[in-house]
Design brief:
Helix content: 25-40%
Mean pLDDT: 94
Strand order of the largest sheet: 6-7-9-8
Order of helices and strands: EHEEHEEHEEHEEH
Largest sheet: 4 strands, antiparallel
Number of strands: 9
CATH superfamily of the largest domain: Homing endonucleases
Number of domains: 2
Number of helices: 5
Strand content: 15-25%
CATH class of the largest domain: Alpha Beta
Length: 157
């Protein structure tokens, strides 16, 4: 499995690597991409458990949400560091545009179990999840001790 981010997110890649070091092939490396993009990435080893996770989240080459998805604050924090964003201080999103509407509704229900209210928000032609303003204090409380310093800008922590 590849863990690939912009070099601007080096601290985040290094954090992931430290957690996954025992199943990683080698330390993160810089890679020049198309145009001016500079990536920072590492790969995991091929292990059974990751293959099983891949089967849960990919069907026929397409990313999906399993029916029995369960979230906790740690899973949410990593997901938010990967796919969270904000526009102004009150518009906070999870960029879920790659998932079907049905799968996004599964995520809405899973987030509700954490006490978080979200809604589908149209972003051009696709939809993503937007946290309701009333849920932002709870979201910040759940994430505050789990988000690394370089990612706190995403939620104003």
């Amino acid at each position: 499995m590849e863990f690939n981010h912009s070099f601007k997110q080096k601290e985040y890649v290094d954090w992931k690597y430290l957690i996954l070091k025992n199943i990683s092939g080698s330390a993160p490396k810089i890679r020049k991409g198309n145009g001016n993009r500079i990536a920072y990435r590492f790969y995991s080893k091929q292990i059974f458990e990751l293959s099983e996770l891949h089967k849960l989240f990919y069907k026929n080459g397409k990313k999906i949400i399993p029916d029995a998805i369960n979230l906790d604050p740690i899973i949410l924090s990593v997901w938010f560091m990967d796919d969270g964003s904000r526009c102004r201080s009150v518009d906070v999103y999870l960029n879920t545009q790659q998932f079907s509407i049905a799968d996004q509704k599964k995520l809405i229900l899973a987030l509700e179990k954490l006490g978080l209210k979200t809604a589908l928000n149209k972003d051009k032609i696709y939809y993503r999840l937007r946290f309701l303003k009333s849920s932002l204090p709870k979201l910040r409380e759940l994430l505050k001790d789990k988000i690394i310093p370089s990612m706190k800008y995403k939620i104003e922590l």
